[in-house]
Amino acid sequence: MEIWLNPACSKCRTAVRELDAAGKEYVVRRYLEEPPTVAELEDVLARLGLEPWDIARTADAAKLGVTLPAKDVAHRHAWLEAMVDQPRLIQRPIITAADGTTVVARDPESLARVIAAD
Asked: DSSP letters along 11-59, please?
Protein backbone atom coordinates (compact mmCIF):
# COMPACT_ATOMS: atom_id res chain seq x y z
CA MET A 1 0.00 0.00 0.00
CA GLU A 2 1.24 3.49 -0.83
CA ILE A 3 -0.05 6.83 0.38
CA TRP A 4 0.74 10.14 -1.28
CA LEU A 5 0.50 12.73 1.44
CA ASN A 6 1.32 16.15 2.73
CA PRO A 7 2.07 15.86 6.47
CA ALA A 8 0.55 19.31 7.06
CA CYS A 9 -2.83 18.10 5.75
CA SER A 10 -5.40 17.01 8.34
CA LYS A 11 -7.02 14.52 5.91
CA CYS A 12 -3.61 12.93 5.36
CA ARG A 13 -2.97 12.66 9.08
CA THR A 14 -6.41 11.07 9.54
CA ALA A 15 -5.65 8.55 6.78
CA VAL A 16 -2.33 7.61 8.41
CA ARG A 17 -4.03 7.15 11.80
CA GLU A 18 -6.67 4.90 10.22
CA LEU A 19 -4.08 2.84 8.35
CA ASP A 20 -2.09 2.43 11.56
CA ALA A 21 -5.20 1.51 13.54
CA ALA A 22 -6.05 -1.13 10.92
CA GLY A 23 -2.53 -2.54 11.17
CA LYS A 24 -1.80 -1.87 7.52
CA GLU A 25 1.73 -1.68 6.16
CA TYR A 26 2.27 1.21 3.79
CA VAL A 27 4.87 3.33 2.11
CA VAL A 28 4.64 7.10 2.51
CA ARG A 29 5.33 9.31 -0.46
CA ARG A 30 5.62 12.96 0.41
CA TYR A 31 4.56 14.05 -3.03
CA LEU A 32 5.48 17.71 -2.46
CA GLU A 33 9.10 16.65 -1.95
CA GLU A 34 9.01 13.88 -4.56
CA PRO A 35 6.45 14.93 -7.17
CA PRO A 36 4.96 12.22 -9.33
CA THR A 37 5.93 11.99 -12.97
CA VAL A 38 3.40 12.43 -15.75
CA ALA A 39 3.43 8.63 -16.20
CA GLU A 40 2.73 8.07 -12.49
CA LEU A 41 -0.15 10.55 -12.59
CA GLU A 42 -1.52 8.83 -15.70
CA ASP A 43 -1.38 5.48 -13.89
CA VAL A 44 -3.17 6.83 -10.80
CA LEU A 45 -5.81 8.55 -12.91
CA ALA A 46 -6.45 5.35 -14.88
CA ARG A 47 -6.96 3.42 -11.64
CA LEU A 48 -9.22 6.16 -10.29
CA GLY A 49 -11.15 6.43 -13.55
CA LEU A 50 -10.76 10.22 -13.39
CA GLU A 51 -9.27 13.10 -15.34
CA PRO A 52 -6.52 15.38 -14.01
CA TRP A 53 -8.94 18.22 -13.27
CA ASP A 54 -10.98 15.82 -11.13
CA ILE A 55 -8.11 15.47 -8.64
CA ALA A 56 -6.86 19.05 -8.84
CA ARG A 57 -6.98 21.56 -6.03
CA THR A 58 -8.18 24.30 -8.35
CA ALA A 59 -8.68 26.81 -5.54
CA ASP A 60 -4.94 26.62 -4.85
CA ALA A 61 -3.98 27.51 -8.43
CA ALA A 62 -4.33 31.27 -7.96
CA LYS A 63 -2.28 31.16 -4.75
CA LEU A 64 0.45 29.33 -6.67
CA GLY A 65 0.29 31.72 -9.62
CA VAL A 66 -0.87 28.96 -11.95
CA THR A 67 -3.36 29.57 -14.74
CA LEU A 68 -5.16 26.29 -15.32
CA PRO A 69 -6.08 25.20 -18.84
CA ALA A 70 -9.55 24.29 -20.04
CA LYS A 71 -11.02 21.07 -18.66
CA ASP A 72 -11.02 19.10 -21.88
CA VAL A 73 -9.11 16.31 -23.59
CA ALA A 74 -7.16 18.76 -25.75
CA HIS A 75 -5.61 20.26 -22.61
CA ARG A 76 -5.21 17.04 -20.61
CA HIS A 77 -1.42 16.90 -20.95
CA ALA A 78 -1.14 20.56 -19.91
CA TRP A 79 -3.03 19.65 -16.71
CA LEU A 80 -0.63 16.79 -16.03
CA GLU A 81 2.40 19.01 -16.59
CA ALA A 82 0.96 21.68 -14.29
CA MET A 83 0.43 19.11 -11.55
CA VAL A 84 3.97 17.76 -11.91
CA ASP A 85 5.39 21.31 -11.85
CA GLN A 86 3.17 22.37 -8.94
CA PRO A 87 2.34 19.21 -6.94
CA ARG A 88 0.32 21.30 -4.45
CA LEU A 89 -2.37 21.18 -7.13
CA ILE A 90 -2.83 17.43 -6.52
CA GLN A 91 -5.65 16.44 -4.19
CA ARG A 92 -4.59 14.42 -1.17
CA PRO A 93 -4.25 11.86 0.24
CA ILE A 94 -4.15 9.38 -2.61
CA ILE A 95 -3.86 5.77 -1.45
CA THR A 96 -3.21 2.72 -3.60
CA ALA A 97 -3.75 -0.74 -2.12
CA ALA A 98 -1.73 -3.79 -3.13
CA ASP A 99 -4.61 -5.02 -5.30
CA GLY A 100 -4.56 -1.75 -7.28
CA THR A 101 -7.58 -0.17 -5.60
CA THR A 102 -6.87 3.55 -5.58
CA VAL A 103 -8.81 6.32 -3.85
CA VAL A 104 -8.58 9.96 -3.00
CA ALA A 105 -9.16 9.31 0.70
CA ARG A 106 -10.78 12.57 1.74
CA ASP A 107 -13.90 10.93 3.12
CA PRO A 108 -14.36 8.02 5.54
CA GLU A 109 -16.03 5.81 2.90
CA SER A 110 -13.12 6.03 0.44
CA LEU A 111 -10.62 5.43 3.21
CA ALA A 112 -12.55 2.39 4.46
CA ARG A 113 -12.78 1.01 0.91
CA VAL A 114 -9.00 1.09 0.35
CA ILE A 115 -8.29 -0.35 3.80
CA ALA A 116 -10.67 -3.24 3.10
CA ALA A 117 -9.16 -3.82 -0.36
CA ASP A 118 -5.59 -4.38 0.73
From this structure: HHHHHHHHHHHTT---EEEETTTSPPPHHHHHHHHHHHT--GGGGB-TH
Choosing from 9, 66, 84, 112, which is the catalytic residue?
9
Active-site annotation holds for 12? no
pTM over 0.90: yes
Q: pLDDT tens for residues 28-81? A: 999 999 999 999 999 999 999 999 999 999 999 989 999 999 999 999 999 999
* Burial track 36-54 (b if 16+ CB lie within 10 A, e otherwise): beeeebeebbeebeeebbe
- The answer to whether residues 60 and 8 touch, using CB atoms and an 8 Å cutoff, is no
Burial class (CB in 10 A: 0-12, 13-18, 19+), 80: buried
